[in-house]
């Protein structure tokens, strides 16, 4: 029945959270991870801004997981038998959790970096550009472009086939970021070899064609160079 008071609404919300934590293994892991992060933040005496950043990340992931659980329950109720659209609904809801988790990792990195990595943290200025911003932004932009292009061409799956090769795009984006960051010839050469090996493995496994691998590599290089020059 519909709650008749604000207190009953709160009780229903709490019951929903408890049910999700009791029945969903991923939810329990999210709560344990959130607990560990908050205790670590208190132990390391994070600043107010850093704690806000971390608390927002934790809240975002748990919120996404709750929405994902609700979608799954509704889909199972409406479509107890297998249906392609039911699968799509669950996949999209799970994708929301994945996006929130990636964002939480990025925010957590910047919140803890100057404590866990003192050398890197010494360069961290809350009012300036954070360390590692250029490579991180480049890889994220390349990933978004790969998703849009795979959706546009409608071929392959997220991790298997399709135009362009996402593995090649990300690998060569990292190489380009390393080179433009002035990491030195040895490190640049090693990352280039590694990117070539990643791309070659997609061909050996028959997951991508040569055209898709080259397109992915070109996308990674071009997008990273453009970000370096204009952003």
**Contiguous helical run count:** 9
Rounded mean pLDDT is 78
Can you tell me the CATH architecture of the largest domain? Orthogonal Bundle
Looking at the structure, what is the overall shape? flat
Unreliable segments of 5+ consecutive residues: 123-131
Percent of residues in β-strands: under 5%
Question: What is the helix content?
Answer: over 70%
Distance between the amino and carboxyl termini: 53 Å
Characterise the protein shown here:
- The protein has 231 residues and is mainly α.
- It has 2 domains: 116 residues, Helix Hairpins (Orthogonal Bundle), CATH 1.10.287; 98 residues, no CATH class.
- The chain contains 9 helices and no strands.
- The radius of gyration is 22 Å and the shape is flat.
- It starts with 5 loop residues before the first helix and ends with a helix.
- About 4% of the residues have low confidence.
Summarize the structure.
By secondary structure, the chain is an all-alpha fold. It is built from nine helices and no strands.
How would you describe this structure in keywords?
79% helix, mainly alpha, 2 domains, single chain, Helix Hairpins, 231 residues, 9 helices, flat
Topology:
Layout: H1 6-23, H2 25-43, H3 48-78, H4 84-116, H5 118-121, H6 133-153, H7 166-180, H8 185-204, H9 210-230
Helix pairs in contact: 1-2, 2-3, 3-4, 6-7, 6-9, 7-8, 7-9
């Amino acid at each position: 029945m519909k709650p008749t008071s604000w207190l009953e609404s709160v009780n229903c919300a709490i019951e929903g959270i408890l049910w999700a934590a009791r029945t969903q293994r991923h939810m329990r892991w999210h709560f344990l991870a959130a607990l560990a992060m908050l205790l670590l933040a208190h132990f390391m005496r994070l600043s107010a801004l850093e704690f806000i950043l971390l608390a927002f990340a934790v809240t975002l992931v748990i919120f996404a997981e709750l929405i994902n659980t609700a979608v799954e329950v509704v889909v199972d109720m409406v479509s107890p038998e297998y249906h392609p659209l039911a699968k799509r609904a669950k996949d999209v809801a799970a994708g929301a959790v994945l996006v929130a988790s990636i964002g939480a990792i990025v925010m957590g990195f910047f919140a803890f970096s100057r404590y866990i990595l003192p050398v890197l943290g010494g360069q961290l200025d809350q009012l300036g550009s954070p360390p590692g911003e250029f490579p991180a932004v480049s890889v994220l932009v390349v990933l978004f472009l790969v998703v849009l292009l795979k959706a546009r061409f409608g071929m392959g799956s997220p991790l298997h086939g399709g135009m362009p090769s996402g593995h090649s795009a990300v690998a060569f984006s990292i190489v380009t970021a390393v080179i433009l960051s002035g990491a030195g010839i040895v490190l640049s050469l090693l990352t280039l070899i590694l990117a070539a090996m990643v791309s070659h493995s997609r061909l050996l496994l028959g997951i991508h064609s040569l055209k898709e691998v080259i397109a992915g590599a070109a996308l990674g290089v071009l997008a990273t160079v453009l970000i370096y020059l204009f952003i």
